[in-house]
Design goal:
Elements lengths: L6 H29 L22 H13 L4 H23 L3 E10 L5 E3 L2 E3 L4 E3 L3 H12 L3 E10 L4 H17 L5 E2 L2 E2 L4 H19 L5 H19 L6 H18 L8 H19 L2 H7 L1 H14 L10 H7 L4 H25 L2
Antiparallel strand pairs: 1-4, 1-5, 2-3, 6-7
Helix pairs in contact: 1-2, 1-8, 2-3, 3-5, 3-9, 5-6, 6-9, 6-11, 7-8, 7-13, 8-9
């Protein structure tokens, strides 16, 4: 399995990954259902999804282990699989910690006929919001006493590691990939010792982009599938077949998972899955040395991160974070949001491919 891969080898790699992803997702879903390891959405518009199995990304880990056992002599595939496995383990720890409830937050509705202020939000009449921030918690009792809001439910909030702890783990993932020595050049530049900060930044950006976008049926898996397929086409266009194998693996993982994760989803990937895909996508872009097209193809999740950062910096105000939940909050259906995000990703990829063919 070492050396160059021809088209038949790549087709076999895709079919192995796709079929394994389908089979392992099916069995992991059965196990999670029996164990009652399920999602409990905090966004009111998604409360109907409570009970759907989460941590489905465990299926990715089994698929990756299968690839390692078959392609252990193929260095790029082996390193790609290794870093995705490491990313998945970090995500799995996040998911396991999240099984413990940290607190229960009130879900209230504005029963007055005027817009009221609660925390950082302006709440319209009949609008439901979660009492999440310290400021909102300090204000809600007075609003309840004044009869302006009513409690209509409670939302359990999962325990999460500190942001600093998450960042440290992600930095370690970047260092691990850097230590393999497979990333030496990027975008036509010799990296030298700059390789470590570049790899770390790529891993951090990709993981958090994919993790943030993973909030609706098929959204993250579909975007990574489209971006990965587009990167394969890009590799073909530029005449570099070495670009294809890492992205073939990602495409196979995502398309197999989408069999069960498309709307209406019967399983969610959790942090385990989003960390696998985020780490894997960054590794694929770095290993294949396609930074410009790779970033463009991931443009939708990156834009979503920027919007969330602006919200957290109090530059803009979102009723619900991230952006796709805000769109849903204002009445755009989940299916339409997912299809729109997929379409925009595809359009960005087509623009990049057309530019490569006709401009460069």
């Amino acid at each position: 399995m070492c050396g160059k891969m021809n088209y038949t080898d790549m087709l076999i790699l895709f079919l192995i990954t796709l079929i394994a992803s389908i089979v392992f997702t099916y069995y992991v879903r059965r196990i999670l259902l029996k164990a009652r390891i399920a999602d409990n959405p905090i966004v009111s518009e998604h409360r109907h999804k409570s009970g759907t199995p989460t941590m489905g990304g465990i299926a990715f880990l089994f698929t990756i282990l299968l690839l390692i056992s078959i392609y252990y002599q193929n260095t790029p595939i082996l390193i790609m699989s290794f870093i995705m496995l490491a990313g998945g383990i970090v995500g799995l720890v996040d998911d396991l910690i999240g099984l413990k409830v940290k607190e229960v937050q009130k879900l209230v509705v504005n029963v007055s006929n005027k817009v009221i202020s609660l925390g950082r939000l302006d709440v319209e009449p009949n609008e439901e919001v979660r009492v999440a921030t310290p400021k909102a918690k300090a204000e809600v009792d007075k609003l309840l006493a004044d009869g302006k809001v009513e409690v209509i439910g409670e939302v359990p909030i999962k325990t999460e590691p500190e942001e600093s702890e998450k960042i440290i783990c992600q930095i370690v993932l970047g260092i691990l990939l850097g230590l393999t020595g497979i990333v030496t050049t990027l975008g036509g530049f010799e990296l030298g010792w700059l390789m470590f900060p570049v790899v770390v930044i790529a891993i951090l950006g990709s993981i958090n982009s994919v993790n943030l976008i993973d909030g609706m049926d098929g959204l993250a898996a579909g975007i990574i599938a489209i971006a990965s397929i587009a990167c394969c086409v890009y590799g073909y266009v530029i005449g570099n077949m070495d670009v294809l194998p890492p992205f073939i693996i990602l495409a196979g993982l995502c398309l197999g998972f989408l069999v069960f994760n498309k709307h209406p989803a019967s399983i969610f990937m959790g942090d385990t899955g989003s960390f696998v895909l985020g780490t894997g996508y960054a590794a694929a872009v770095l290993i294949a040395d396609v930074p410009y097209f790779g970033v463009l193809a991931l443009g939708v999740p990156i834009f979503s991160v920027v919007v969330s950062l602006l919200h957290r910096a109090n530059i803009i105000k979102l009723p619900v974070e991230p952006l796709h939940h805000t769109l849903n909050h204002y009445g755009m259906s989940e299916t339409k949001i997912v299809l729109t995000y997929w379409a925009v990703t595809a359009i960005l990829c087509i623009i990049g491919l057309v530019a490569q063919v006709y401009l460069f």
